[in-house]
Design goal:
This protein is α+β, with helices and mostly antiparallel strands and 411 residues long. The chain has 15 helices and 16 strands. Bound molecules: histidyl-adenosine monophosphate (HAM).
């Protein structure tokens, strides 16, 4: 049997899981203050849900999906992202009655990408979606919530917000025509990847990391020259509100994002600390998504953050509550020790019972486990209804009546 975890997946040992949970708890608490409440959708969906929404030519659909047939010959896909599933649930659960709908979700996502630092095949996202409002102020609320999450995780200062508008459909259509015209003129100087994209997904050429492509793009037309009035107005509203809220950003006319469902504003918080995988929290507006899926026309905006990336960057430490060690001196007091531990736990105190090995080793183990007190139970003490309690930080030891033990330990 091959005992390695599958390439691109990882085990979360207790410390890593505690950090992951800390990041989720902080993010959940922040977005809760903005009125986003958690919901969950299944980890797999009919493949159509992703194929029809993310775009056949997108990297995700064309080469990264974990797609399989189940025993009933249904074609299913492990979710590569969360937005399409939320949009599917919005339609199938009839949530259009509940707009503006603000939801948060978190959990594993799956993409068959080349694994490297910060990039995995099973990774975790935490995201928010705001469905209903078409106003740019909804984009601002989402961006502000993302910024506050990064702030409370103490990573906002090492991240920069890149923002752009890819305009509405009409503006984008006109822009793509001009971009393709320009790029066709320099086609043979483009990288092989960009030449392919010129046919299938020309906007993504703006994302190219190839230096020669980047140099050619310097003279390419820019999207902001093609905004119609509506696109101009909604983007200006967002820029002005971000300034008013002192949320720092860089306008980046080359930012396009890799999924087909976006329109108008797109954004990405990036870091320089994770090498090539620099996107920490990213998203944008998707006004046509729900309609494309057959639901009632409902604008939407949101973002998702990679939790592994947030955990790597976040300097905060998960601090589990400190336990009490219960040490029965003798076999005859073991039962009493487990009973006492059960009572204390039921009142809310974490306890560890150490009943094997010599006393000094057990005491060392208690210290190593960050216990704040050791309750030593001998037959004589139990007879008297007492325990000997050593407070490990102070080194002080005293006898405490068993009936007073909980309040003594709690204080
Ligand atoms: P995305 O940019 O594809 O957007 O992913 C969002 C975040 O997930 C990225 O910024 C990154 O932090 C993390 N991420 C993506 N791929 C990986 C990977 N292979 N390993 C580790 N982390 C990764 C979306 O998924 C959109 N659904 C976001 C959105 C929500 N747009 C509107 N609403």
């Amino acid at each position: 049997m091959n005992l390695q975890s599958v390439r691109g997946t990882q085990d979360f040992l207790p410390e890593a899981q505690a950090k992951h949970n800390l990041v989720v708890d902080i993010a959940r608490s922040v977005v809760g203050r903005f009125g986003f409440y958690e919901m969950a959708t299944p980890i797999f969906e009919f493949s159509e849900v992703f194929k029809r929404t993310l775009g056949e030519a997108s990297d995700i659909v064309s080469k990264e999906m974990y797609t399989f047939k189940d025993r009933n010959d249904e074609e299913l896909t492990l979710r590569p992202e969360g937005t399409a599933g939320i949009a599917r649930a919005f339609i199938s659960e009839g949530l259009s009655q509940r707009t503006p709908l603000k939801v948060m979700y978190q959990g594993p996502m799956f993409r068959y990408e080349r694994p490297q630092k910060g990039r995995y095949r099973q990774f975790h996202q935490l995201g928010i979606e705001l469905l209903g409002p078409a106003s740019g102020m909804a984009d601002v609320e989402c961006i502000a919530a993302g910024f506050m999450v990064l702030n409370e995780l103490k990573i906002a200062e090492s991240c920069s917000l890149e923002i752009n508008s890819i305009g509405d459909e009409e503006s984008r259509r006109n822009y793509i025509a001009a971009l393709v015209k320009y790029l066709k003129g320099v086609q043979d100087q483009l990288s092989a990847d960009s030449q392919k994209r010129l046919e299938q997904n020309p906007l993504r050429i703006l994302d190219s990391k190839d230096e020669k492509d980047q140099a050619l793009l310097k003279s390419a037309p820019l999207i902001n020259e093609f905004y119609n009035e509506e696109s101009k107005r909604s983007y200006a509203q967002i820029i002005s509100a971000l300034k008013a809220m002192s949320i720092p950003f860089n306008e980046n006319p080359l930012l396009v994002r890799g999924l087909d469902y976006y329109s108008h504003c797109v954004f990405e918080f990036r870091t320089q600390q994770l090498g090539a995988q620099d996107a920490v929290l990213s998203g944008g507006r998707y006004d046509q998504l729900i309609k494309t899926m057959g639901g009632p026309a409902t604008p939407g905006v949101g973002w998702a953050a990679g939790l592994e990336r947030l955990s790597m960057l976040c300097p905060l430490e998960a601090k589990p509550a400190r336990p009490v060690a219960i040490l029965p001196i003798h076999e005859s007091t073991e039962q009493e020790a487990f009973k006492l531990a059960y009572e204390l736990r039921s009142k809310g105190l974490p306890c560890e019972v150490h009943f094997s090995g010599n006393m000094s080793k057990r005491m060392k183990k208690a210290v190593a486990q960050n216990c704040f007190a050791a309750v030593i139970l001998g037959p004589d003490e139990i007879q008297k209804g007492e325990a000997s309690v050593k407070f490990l930080d102070q080194g002080e030891q005293k006898s405490i009546r068993l009936t007073d033990l909980f309040s003594a330990l709690r204080s």
